Amino acid sequence: MKTWLDKWEPENEEFWENTGSKIAWKTLTITTLSLILSFASWFLMSVIAVKLPGLGFGFSKDQLFWLAAIPGLAAGILRIIHTFILPIFGTRHVVAWATLIKLIPVIGIGFAVMDVNTPFWVFAVLAFACGFGGGDFSSYMPSTSLFFPKRLKGTALGIQAGIGNFGVSLAQFVTPLILSVSIYGTASVFTSIDAKETLSVFQNSTIEKQKEVFTDLDAEVQTKILANVKKPVLDSVTAAVNSSDNAIIFAALPLKVKSKAIANANPKLAEKILNKISPDNGAVQNKDIYIQSAAFWFIPFLLILSVISWFYLKSIPMHSSIKEQMDIFKNKHTWYCTITYMMTFGTFAGLSAAFPLMIKFLYGDFPNAPDPLVYAFYGPLIGSASRIAFGFVADKVGGAILTTITGIGILAGAVILVTQGLVSPTSMDQFPLFVGVILAMFFFTGIGNAGTFRQYPIIFAENQRQAAGVIGWTAAIAAFGPFIFSKLIGNNITINGTVNQFFIGLIVFTILATIINWWFYNRRGCERPS
Question: Start and end of every Magnesium transporter MgtE intracellular domain (predicted)?
Answer without folding.
Answer: 186-274
